[in-house]
């Protein structure tokens, strides 16, 4: 499970690099006197697709970490309650 989460984060990192590459290509193309509209369209679509993937995966990772945190807090509280009950008995 942990290895899968790390692999997903590595994929997100690659997707972020793709976003930056597309943004650079778009800026470079826009700086030209005569721009290639179809190239700009392709780069924009790839940029948007990559941004959506990054957002989706990071949202999923945040949801998972939030769930883990909640579970950990519950377990710590239960442990503390158990220890208090053991000490008073």
UniProtKB/TrEMBL annotation:
Task: Quote the cellular component terms of the Gene Ontology held in the record.
Answer: mediator complex
Query: What does the UniProt entry say about where the protein is found?
Result: Nucleus
Keywords noted in UniProt: Activator, Nucleus, Transcription, Transcription regulation
Please name the GO terms of the biological process aspect recorded for this protein, alphabetically: regulation of transcription by RNA polymerase II
**Coiled-coil zones:** none
GO molecular function, a single term:
transcription coregulator activity
Which Pfam family name is an example for this entry?
Answer: Med11
Transmembrane stretches in the record are: none
* InterPro entries, A to Z: Mediator_Med11
Family that this chain belongs to: Belongs to the Mediator complex subunit 11 family.
- Known function: Component of the Mediator complex, a coactivator involved in the regulated transcription of nearly all RNA polymerase II-dependent genes. Mediator functions as a bridge to convey information from gene-specific regulatory proteins to the basal RNA polymerase II transcription machinery. Mediator is recruited to promoters by direct interactions with regulatory proteins and serves as a scaffold for the assembly of a functional pre-initiation complex with RNA polymerase II and the general transcription factors.
The annotated subunit structure for this chain is: Component of the Mediator complex.
Any idea what this protein is called?
Mediator of RNA polymerase II transcription subunit 11
**Which organism does this record belong to?**
Stegastes partitus
Gene that specifies this protein:
LOC103362105
